[in-house]
Every structure is written in structure tokens, then in C-alpha cells.
Amino acid sequence: MERLWNRNYCKVMVANFTLFFAFYVLTPLLPLYLSEHFGATKDVIGLVLSGYTVTALLFRPFSGYVVDSFSRKKVLMICFGTFSIFFAGYLAASTLLLFMVVRTLHGGPFGALTVANSTVAIDVLPSSRRTEGIGYYGLSNNLAMAIAPTIGIFLYKLTNSFEALFWLALIVACLGWLVDSTVTLPPPTGGVRGGHPRSKLSWDRFFLVKGWLLGLNMVAFGFSFGVLSNYLAIYGKEVLGITGGTGTYFMLCSVGLILSRLQGGRALRKGRLTHNAAEGMVISLIGYTLFIGFPSLGNLSPLTSYLSPLTFIGYYGSALLIGLGNGHMWPAFQNMTINVAHNNQRGTANSTILISWDIGMGLGILVGGVVSELLGYAAAFWTVVLLNGAGVLCFFLATKAFFLRRNLNASVH
Length: 413
Prior knowledge:
This protein has 413 residues and is mainly α. It has 14 helices and no strands. The protein has helices spanning 7-24, 30-38, 42-69, 72-92, 96-124, 130-159, 162-181, 212-240, 246-263, 265-269, 273-298, 304-339, 346-375, 377-406.
């Protein structure tokens, strides 16, 4: 059997860790920075920070086309270099408007870099271990998500300096660029100088039309996580009375993600993509139901004193289950999308799955806010359960058969 953990794959994994570390080390503290340094109000903070996601979403379709049409190594170096330089922009931004411009533009190279780096990871994997390797690849950003916020908060408390955080993010990102610069890619198969064979410019070069139903399924799951990640803290504080538990929640979610990547490796190695996807979706659905269902039972007025532990079981237990579920589901869906695409469409396939997740996340933030304003946070999270359940039902009734009809790799199913 070909070697999975080859030198180039390990380098790409390390680079992926650094780019997500640089991103997550700032994420929990940027609202505080904007409030303290510029006196920004809550609505302005939301506007400033949302620009990053919008720009990343706009860049991803074009990123897939560029990665598939030009030298992937050159594209990767340009994207990573630009992504790194923008951290210096945070240090130089002296006004709120300038910071907003820098933050919004920074989303572009981030969106392009995530597509480029993951596509390069696929290129350096041996074909017989590719399915398994894509699953393990996500471990690097899971680890970054687990430890970077904690390190960022610790460093801020130690130095009381946001500048130190920006310098740390800049240095770590530059180290990632250096690591990626040493990656050696296999020669292109189509004979195009410096890159991959270029095809006619068409809609399918920006979004993988052949995988549209897989993308639609991912929108439903992105919606669920969008509501959870953005309204978790305020729901825990205002409805459940849990203060300061958000960090622990996401830590447990990261633990679930990491465990699922390790445990699911065997099924991915055997090419059991639909099995992994189904297992992950069902576990996630149980997790979301547990999150809203158990606290609701725990807050029934006649039984509150007896069932209040259910609140904590549902709250923290759901984190582990949602992490486990997403850790199984994500690499399975990514692999399925790649396996309905030709080799010169890997970048497009990667951008398609990321675009779908981003659209779902954005809709979750928007719809979750509207529903919680009109009917309360509990109603917003029950909406999550319903839409997640609809996504699971869609997979078993249509998406699984859709993938198997279009699958280009006979060794996976």
C-alpha cells in the first residue's frame, strides 16, 4: 500500500494548521478590540466582521477556476502571501473605516487560500489513499480551532496588547507560507506549461453543476452550524443561565471532530463514503436535538429542581455529538464531490463544497436572528433541528442515489 503520510502531505497539513491558527487566534477577541480601541457599537461590530465572510464567499467560485487553470503552486504562494500580508494591515489600521476595509478585503485571500491549499493536499496524496487522506486533512484546522482561541485569550491577558496578537498571527501565517513554499507537486498530466489543462470558460468551472444536490445538502448542514455558532453564547446566557461555557462548548466540539477523523479513517480507507456521511448526519441530528430538547425538559417549571442536570447534559453532550457528526460528514461529502468531478476540476469541487457551507452559514445567521427576534431563541434552534432533519431525509431519499449515479471512482461507494 502506498504511503499516506508522505513529506509533502505533512507540509501541507502544517501549513493548513498555521493559516487556521492565524485566523482563530484573533476571532474571539476582535469584537473586544473594535469596542475598546475604536468604540464601535454592537451593530457596527457585526457589520465590520461580516465583511470577511462575504468576501471569502465571493472569491471561492473564482478560486476553484484559477486553481484548476493555472499552476497550483504559484496560485498557492500568491494566495498565502497575500493572506499573510493582510495581518500587517491590522497593525497599520488607525481608524475604524480603515480597519473595516482591511478586514473585508482579507476575506478574499482567505477564501482563495482554503481552496488552493486543500486542492494541493489532494494532489500530493497517493491515489490509493486519497479518500482517507482528505479525512485526516481536516484534523489540522480542527486542532487550530481547538487551541488557537485559548492561546489568543491567554496572550491578551498576559500582555493586555492586541498588537501582540496581530504580530503572532502575522508570524504564524508567514511560517505557513514558508512551509508551503517547500512543497513539491507532481507534474501536470495534461501537458500545459506551468499548470493544468485549461478548459472552456463555463458555469461548471465556477460551481460543480454535477454535484449540485451534494451542495444543496451541505447548505442545510451549514445552516444548522451557522445558527449554533452565532447564537450559542447568548442563548446559553439568557435562556439557560450558563455563563462562560462557550469556550468549553467549542473545545468539546473540537474534541468530537478530532475523534471522528481518527475513528472514521478506516471507513474512508475502504471507500465507504455514503456510510460515513449517513453516520455523521444522524449523529449530528441527535446532537442538535439533544441541545434544544434536554434543556427544554430541564426548564419545565414543576420539575426544574430535579431535571436541571439535563440542561448541562444536553448543552455539553450535544457539543461532543455535533463535533463527532460533522467530523464524519464533512470529509465524506468533500470526497463525494471530488469523486463526481474530473481531475482538472478538483479546485472547483473543493470551492463548491465550501461555497455551499458558507451559504448555509450565512442563511443560518440571518434566519436565526429573525426567528429568535420574533419567536425566541428556542424556536430558532428547533428550526435547526427541522432543517437538519430535512437534510438527512434528503440524503437518504435522493442524494445518495444521485452520488452513486455520477461517481467516477469505482473503488468508493
